[in-house]
């Protein structure tokens, strides 16, 4: 989800609710402790120099049980961040600590914001020799060199 998308969604909501893919909700009294833009300059394993930018939201679960971040307040935080930091309309990455700090993509299901698990990937599969898809082989076509029972090979 891009920053412009969350800005369109927030005015339509009564509450801001985040949910993990496993169905667990981020506690209602979370804080957004950071809004920023992260730039990552790196080289992939194929030697290609890459540059990525994401808008970062950091969610924090405090012991402040009376706190509830309302949609208008989050929209204001985003607008101040855009003005003061020059944040671009990029994909949103959410940091949230469960067992350790996790980074999540963000989606909206019509009611809640969903923290989608991110996955690592090779960006230079062609340079690494990794096939784009595993070849499909019928088990019936495999030649068997299996041991027979009591042959002593196993």
Number of DSSP-assigned strands: 6
Biggest sheet character: 6 strands, mixed
Number of helices: 3
**Overall form:** elongated
- Radius of gyration, whole Å: 23 Å
Structural class: alpha/beta
- The largest beta-sheet arranges its strands as 1-6-5-4-3-2
SSE series? HEEEHEEEH
What is the share of helical residues?
Answer: 10-25%
Q: How many separate domains make up the residues?
A: 1
Sheet-strand content, in percent, reads 25-35%
Low-confidence stretches: none
User: CA-to-CA gap between the ends?
Assistant: 53 Å
Mean pLDDT: 88
InterPro entries: DUF6428 (IPR045534)
Pfam families: DUF6428 (PF20001)
Short description:
It holds the Pfam family DUF6428. The chain has 154 residues and is an alpha/beta fold.
Structural summary, described in words:
By secondary structure, the protein is α/β, with parallel strands linked by helices. The protein has one domain. Helix content is 17%, strand content 32%. The protein contains three helices and six strands. The protein has helices at residues 3-9, 71-85, 125-128; strands at residues 18-20, 30-43, 49-61, 92-97, 101-108, 113-117. The protein has a six-stranded mixed beta sheet, with helices on one face. The longest helix is centred in the middle third of the chain and has 15 residues, at 71-85. The chain is elongated, with a radius of gyration of 23 Å.
